[in-house]
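Inputs:
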Amino acid sequence: MTTLEIKNLAVAVGGSQILSDVSLTIKSGEVHAVMGPNGAGKSTLSAALMGKPGYVVTGGSVTLDGVDMLALPTWQRATAGLHLIMQYPTEIPGVMLQDAMSAALDTRNQDSNHLKKIIETEAKRIGFDPELVMRSVNVDFSGGEKKRSETLQLAVLQPKIAILDELDSGLDIDALRDCAQRVEDATLETNLGVLVITHYSRLFEQLKPDFVHILTNGRIVKSAGPELADELEVTGYAAYL
Amino acid sequence: MSTLALPTVDEEIWRYSRIGELNLDQFELGKVSTKIDASSQAKQCVSSATNVAPRNATDIFEDLNVRNAQLTAISVAKNQVIADPIIITHSLDKSGVVVYPRLVIDAHENSEVTIVERFISGNGVSSLIVPVVDVRAAQSARVTYVAINELGNATWQIGYQQAVGQRDSMMKLFTVALGGDYARVRAEVRLEGQGANSQQVALYFADSTQMHDFRTLQDHAAPRTHSSLLFKGAVKDTAKSVYTGLIRIRENATKSEAFQTNRNLTLSHGAWAESVPNLEIETNDVKCSHASTVGPVDDDQRFYLESRGIMPDIAERLVVLGFFGEVLDRLPAVPFIADLRERVSTKLLGDSN
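Outputs:
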């Protein structure tokens, strides 16, 4: 059992305070949805959790099973068990996806001999063309291919906690269904804990949230069960601004 | 001896260079050892003494090369296709000498040839090499030329490449520069015949106190000519690099296309790269573009890989090898290309900061 504990997190970007007080506790197998309008600070939360340069933590703490994540560089947060699926996955010309995954397994002292086989199996599950792993990371990938690639990496690297930053942006419904279903499966198969950041409830058809939190103006203003997502679908965020 | 004077950094073409450090008198005329590997078919085309048309020297180094040239001449007959690459290796193992290798490639009408010229010296060999290569591609000829600088860390190079293409010819000119203390190449292409085509591609990577210096010219002197240039470099530690490039479209070169891209990675705070692209267009109805960048490894690319659990130095190595991959992948299939990738990788691993 793993616990990611975010306590009173405050984050500034470029001198302005974006998150002022965010507390969440995510345990293995749980799915937490953080929902909010554009500009609420949702992407800042995911970037700060992973230690993206430029996102300055000004208060609070983040621990994974008691280990202070904020003290670790990005790569160690990843090997400790955090994984970020990015809203806009970066293109890296000349770096083959397979080589990147192989390097990622190397740091974890995991044998990459079976990588090809694992990739084939996982690619099939989510409808990803396995030939794409021989291409440069995200270069000339369609929106759907990018998110399938992100999901494939999650499946191969088997983190403890996944942070999904707007998995549902820039891809078609089929790709969304495949990716969301694969993450949902991981919560059951490998007990993955999930923090899913979104402003639509569309992906909840496959990936079922146990908790829904509303983030506006840099703080969590309400936390409840999945019924909150249904309510938001009808009333929008207006009541929480 | 030459009657010409040493240039100075006041001349635009020598700006940023280390020419001021050079004392020619400290070198005596030496010999470079030249080895040629070629198929028996290709060997027929190679000689060391033919009637080579004289060359107009633009400066003292070219002039001295004309006077002291150690000549290798390759002449490919009309319609002849040489399948395997001809590999020329120049080795220098003595300090205190200046050597003047000269290569002349004459590709006659509709012929095809690939030539690789390697420059090698040991570390600590404090000498000067002044190589000059002339590529002449006749109508519809296809020439691929690859220059590889694997010089030691104390050797200077002041090199010249001049390639002239006639009607519908295709010239691909590659330069890979890893070695040398100060290593300079002036690489010029002139498209003289209608529909002539050139590609210039280079990879350079300087570390420690090395300096790489490139001056390029894409000179369009006929209609419907097409040139493209892609130079990618990296500097590490306190190394330096200079790229200055000119696209010249002459008045008669209508409907021509010229592209020039120079990208530089600065891998250490103390490293320095300069990139100066220029356009000189004397006619309308042409398509030209140039792009130039100097900067460190992209933060987002680094973050992406690190977020997968890849250590920073390995992430950087992946990104830099990927950056150079675009050039390495275009190189013709010659046996030591895999070595080059390895050598770039080794350089990246070397002590930095």
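Remarks. The two ends of chain B are 43 Å apart (CA to CA). Chain B touches chain A at residues 298-301, 303-312, 314-315, 318-319, 321-326 (CB under 8 Å).
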